[in-house]
């Protein structure tokens, strides 16, 4: 399998992926613990620096670019400082952000994580502050894209839908993407969806990559270590969404791949189970699966590549990406 995965990895370069979805700003505020406040039982931090990186669909697009893919991102941000910095960061990462609309009056969703530690210790997250604007009017965003989305769809190798509940992604938009891709001749273009709150409203796409908690919430079950419950849950999601494959990510328990008329593939976690940070790991997984399918890989090989990528990214602090070089080293080192 190692040689097959290396071949699949080499095929990722240059594949064109269109990413559509909700973009957020992941803000990391770093400080050093100075002392305990006399005003309240809280720590006083001496401010060090602030880092803002793309989250949500922006992180998925960044991961596609890090894997050597060519990606066009469609979404929206506000006309605020966070939105401006996001557009700059995306361009610096090699993402085509011409489809990112800056909406007047819209507040860019920002997730601020405050990390603190000593001079000689790793910074640990002590609090997270979420700033969310109202749901964006999808028609406003879709009309602002104009023909750019259809032009991008005309030459892409895959489409990644990232639905964080911000309003950009709608069933009507997904139906439009499907209709547009059907007009193309040649092989079928894979469409993948990562929906954090309502996976059930997307039907008949290529694949989805929900985590175990999302599956439990969707079906009202508790999976835990019970393989029989996992099997029923995965098959139920597969049936209800009418997708070709469902890849359930299970944290330290690895992954489970469900395909119609094929036995379930259980993939154990690779690397260390001492996780440093799971921020954005789901974006890395679906980006890797999407790129692999774009290059013609099987669902199983795509899942194995994503398993390596997920194992690498959770060992990094903050919202991070994984490169093809890192993936190659991890595959070659795995005995």
UniProtKB/TrEMBL annotation:
This protein's GO CC annotations: cytosol
GO molecular function per UniProt: heptose 7-phosphate kinase activity; heptose-1-phosphate adenylyltransferase activity
Record-given protein name: Bifunctional protein HldE
Domain Carbohydrate kinase PfkB as annotated: residue spans: 36-321
Gene behind this protein: hldE_3
Source species: Luteitalea pratensis
Coiled coil residues, start to end: none
């Amino acid at each position: 399998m190692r040689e097959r995965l290396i071949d699949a990895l080499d095929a990722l370069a240059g594949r064109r992926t269109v990413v559509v979805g909700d973009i957020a700003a992941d803000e990391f505020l770093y400080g050093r613990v100075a002392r305990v406040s006399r005003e309240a039982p809280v720590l006083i931090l001496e401010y060090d620096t602030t880092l803002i990186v793309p989250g949500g669909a922006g992180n998925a697009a960044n991961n596609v670019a890090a894997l050597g893919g060519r990606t066009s991102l469609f979404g929206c941000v506000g006309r605020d400082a966070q939105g401006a910095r996001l557009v700059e960061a995306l361009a610096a990462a090699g993402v085509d952000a011409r489809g990112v609309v800056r909406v007047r009056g819209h507040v860019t969703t920002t997730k601020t994580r405050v990390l603190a530690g000593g001079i000689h210790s790793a910074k640990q997250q002590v609090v997270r502050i979420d700033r969310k604007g109202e749901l964006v009017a999808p028609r406003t965003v879709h009309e602002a894209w104009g023909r750019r989305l259809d032009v991008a769809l005309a030459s892409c190798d895959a489409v990644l839908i990232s639905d964080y509940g911000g309003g950009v992604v709608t069933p009507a938009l997904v139906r439009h993407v499907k209709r547009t891709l059907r007009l193309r001749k040649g092989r079928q273009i894979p469409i993948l969806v990562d929906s954090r709150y309502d996976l059930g409203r997307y039907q008949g796409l290529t694949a989805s990559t929900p985590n175990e908690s999302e599956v439990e919430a969707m079906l009202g079950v508790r999976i835990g270590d019970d393989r029989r419950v996992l099997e029923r849950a995965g098959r139920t999601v597969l049936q209800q969404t009418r997708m070709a494959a469902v890849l359930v990510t299970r944290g330290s328990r690895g992954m489970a791949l469900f395909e119609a008329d094929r036995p379930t593939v259980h993939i154990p976690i690779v690397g260390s189970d001492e996780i440093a940070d799971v921020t954005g790991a789901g974006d890395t997984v679906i980006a890797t699966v999407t790129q692999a399918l774009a290059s013609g890989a099987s669902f199983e090989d795509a899942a194995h590549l994503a398993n390596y990528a997920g194992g690498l990214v959770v060992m990094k602090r903050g919202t991070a990406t994984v490169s093809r070089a890192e993936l190659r080293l991890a595959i070659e080192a795995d005995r």
